[in-house]
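ingest -> validate -> predict -> emit
validate: passed (alphabet ok, no gaps, 454 aa)
predict: started
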Amino acid sequence: MIVCPQSVEHPRGSRCQRLPGQVVKMSSSDPECPQFLFVKVLASRGRLEAVTQQMGYHPQYLDSFLKTQHYLMHMDGPLPFDCRHYIAIMAAARHQCRYLVNLHVLQFLRAGGDPQWLRGLEFIPPKLRNLNEINKILAHRPWLITKEHIEKLLKISEWSWSLAELVHAVVLLAHCHALASFVFGCGCEQDEGLGGRGSLKPLSLGNQCFCEATAGNSYSQELLRINRKRSLDSCMELDSLRERMQRIHVETEGRDEMRLLQQDREEGLSPLADTDGEVTGATNLACYMQDPDFGYQDFARRDENQTQVFRVQDYSWEDHGFSLVNRLYSDIGHLLDEKFRMVDGLQSSAMAKRQGCEPSVFKRGIWNYIHCMFGIRYDDYDYAEVNQLLERMLKVYIKTVTCYPEKTNSEMFDRFWKQFKHSEKVHVNLLILEARMQAELLYALQAITQYMIS
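emit:
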């Protein structure tokens, strides 16, 4: 038997709180039990990161995520262990994600990495430093990557990459870029540590709520009361959402996805940035990146003579990307594919009830909207559905977390879907994480394929 709390909703960015528990029968070895997964993480890392706690709302996905990340970082592969963590540092720095940078700095040192490398890119081997260009492009404008970028890294020289090493690096970059979106989207960055935004504080087993579920206190009772109040349905908002969902089925006039992006620009769908337009403390991470002003630009503003719309019918993960990545980096394709399928298969009866439709329709709208922002088109999808499904504040939130995660703030998180539970908002952030990662992989793997057949 395990003592565990009843299902509760933790506020954004908060650590697990001690709540009055009740004894339930549950197998301690059940891989779908979040407590079991938390114990496994604590046993291997000695701490329970905020990301793991947030993903714990969806334990099946968490299990798949942990297996993939462990394989990328700690199992046999083309890249040395210290280089893997340094690549993760470079990727997280593009979005000023202190949470991930600090985490991988510790892991880098534990893997025997040279402390001098932590002084910045000028102190690392040229082979790693050469990765900066595709790191920058994949993080902000992945549609710009070409076979020439791949050829430059693979050309024969003292600092050349092998194809297997490059695929490993590309998967690491895409993984950490997308994970940075999740970190900011769920408030993990704001919560970490007492020494300031993003600093790390090791956690002990005794500090975790699932081990002390019976030790309730007045604060946790008040927290539970507040969250129950926040999760009450807003009838007017739900009725409005249901009406919009129903109109989809009678909509006869389609709208091209480029018009969707153009409308976003006209409506001013931009992140709610700080008044000075900068991210607090970003300069501390400047040593890990070059060209810090390079950022996301609306795909609709691209040079159409140089960059065309990416059509999934011509190059898809299922038919092309999966086999390539699995051939050059054994088994990672299966793990990534399982993760993509897992997030697509996540179900929420409460979410479906609030939407008044099949959850798959709503999830596909979010997924395709994210891919649309990166210039990826599905010819069999009517993009008119996006404007029907996603209200303006939700679109602002999705676009910010996807394209400018470092500018995400608590106000944006609280304002979208006020009537939805925290776990359902985490679900949306998981969709953002996986859709963004797949988008980056599609562009990078297509460029590698073009290099190989040229």
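The chain is about 55% helix and 5% strand.
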